[in-house]
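Components:
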Amino acid sequence: MGKHIARLILAAAILVAIASSASFALADGGNGQASPGIRRTNGAIVVGSGWQQFSWNVSGQPYNTEGAFTFTTNSETLLRVTDVFCVGDQFKVYDFGVLLGTTSIPGSVVCSGPNVTQNPDYAYGYPYYGYSHSAFSLAPGAHSITIQTVVNPLTTGVGFLRVDAVSVAKPASVNNGAWQRRYSLTSGPVQDNFTFGAATDVPLLCDWDGNRSKTPGVFRAGVWYLSNSSTDGSTDITLFFGQAGDIPICGDWDGNGTETVGVVRGTGWYLRNANTSGPATTFFTYGALGDRPIVGDWDGNGSDTPGVYRSGTWYLRNSNSAGSANIVFTFGVGLAGTPVVGDWNGDGKDEVGLVRGNLWLLRHSLTSGNFDASFEFGEPTGKPLVWR
Ligand SMILES: [Ca+2]
Ligand SMILES: [Ca+2]
Ligand SMILES: [Ca+2]
Ligand SMILES: [Ca+2]
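Structure:
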């Protein structure tokens, strides 16, 4: 029910967006002047203040004419860059002169029509428009962003960038009831720790009360002990679900914002939509015996759905029902490791990783390939988990 409503809202939003962008393109008549967003007046910009225009006006390999966009962040930040107006330009993005990456491959040059827009939200949000665009994750600290136009069929033009603090996944490691956490996906020391549960428990991290913060829980032979705070030993909820030998899982199965309990028994997935004792709300079979079950919001629609990891191949499904995988890719073939799931780049969709000892290897897209980021954290013998 919730998912159907979400789909209807999404469909309506897309229709409105298409209608708006079409009239926008007509109204502006192709004069080349981008109107939305904030025109920067000096080098410093404020994180979270919206789109900032940048421009280029010389042929060859021009850098943006404004000079560097500078800012300092206290948390992980997402830098988004997009072309607007005429489709066809592409950019290299630098931080203090160090290449962060190149924006996506642009569509063929087009300056008019229903899919031409000067609104960066539409240019960035609708990939089929063909605007070159990308997101780059930035670590906490000082940044100085410059843009180089590497494909430049029209000599002059404008694009937009924005920087926003994001809530990305963070690493944890649990060893014999001792929980260690770090506040960023980087190598470094433990930043806080607490004790919860016993050595033989299976630890989990989920948002049991729906306040956007994942806190500890443990599964002990069919009994769940859940805490809504990451502090020593306090149990807020005790409930019965599943039995000894089950693999415990947790996630927001119905997309209502609260993450709840589940177990995998053989290939059977038993999910419950409340953190109370009682029968499964949903049951289906998925995967094969011996698979490592994982849970994530692969499509970013707000509900968590199943996946399995099998010897380097990931089989992900976008609904909590029996059926075949919607997404299949390889990552980590030949590498022993523990699969982990999290939104590593803050785009609202979950990605996967493998933890080998204390080495975390993260993939930033649900596609075949090598790891995109790595760091060391946790006890080599601990269980890696992800919080936010
Ligand atoms: Ca919570
Ligand atoms: Ca839920
Ligand atoms: Ca989903
Ligand atoms: Ca993501």
